[in-house]
């Protein structure tokens, strides 16, 4: 499981970037939309009785879930309690059928008899993904659905090749997912397709990371000289037509609990 120290750092980072996350996290928004589309393509029912979404953040996945499915009761979880205000606005027309819990998904109380558990761009922050999957699947009804996205090993490879310590603890490629799931789960579909964002400068790239909170593990302290050196190295190794690329490596997975 993620240590309490790391959880605190992650919480602080996402809390700091909460006001800018929704607009800045363009990759995460697209990933969430793709995950819902994949769920529909795999034959998920139009109606779900009880749904849990963890790591809901500012609602990038919440919105397409409630727009694409008839959900009787929705349980939302996030590490950052301050996310409640934005989520409450998003779910205001179904407030009596929505509840919220805040804290690490590894330890918070979970609803029972769930028909769908969904999460986008969150499991990379969980150190023991198989343990979490076992915990979640135990709350799924037979035939219940699991729709999760994380990131593969190419995530932010540019930063890691230059010595950055901004990586999350759990990057898993598509081929890793069968071993991450309990035996009573059928893996229906998994897809991995990198997305590359382009930036004009290292300052712009680092500002993106800060605004989206995804640099929670980073400990670097920057000054003007270090920024110049880092940008020169980045451009030398990865520069493309004057731009600095940053790779997101989303892995989307759909599974069902055996009946």
Automatic annotation (TrEMBL):
UniProt key word S-adenosyl-L-methionine: yes
GO molecular function annotations of the record: carboxyl-O-methyltransferase activity; malonyl-CoA methyltransferase activity
Keywords, comma-separated and alphabetical: Biotin biosynthesis, Methyltransferase, S-adenosyl-L-methionine, Transferase
E.C. number(s) listed in UniProt: 2.1.1.197
Taxonomic source organism: Parasedimentitalea maritima
A Gene Ontology BP annotation from the UniProt entry: methylation
Top class in the EC scheme: transferase
Record-stated family: Belongs to the methyltransferase superfamily.
Reactions that this protein is recorded to catalyse: malonyl-[ACP] + S-adenosyl-L-methionine = malonyl-[ACP] methyl ester + S-adenosyl-L-homocysteine
Pathway participation: Cofactor biosynthesis; biotin biosynthesis
Name of the protein described by the UniProt record: Malonyl-[acyl-carrier protein] O-methyltransferase
Protein's job: Converts the free carboxyl group of a malonyl-thioester to its methyl ester by transfer of a methyl group from S-adenosyl-L-methionine (SAM). It allows to synthesize pimeloyl-ACP via the fatty acid synthetic pathway.
NCBIfam families from the UniProt entry: BioC
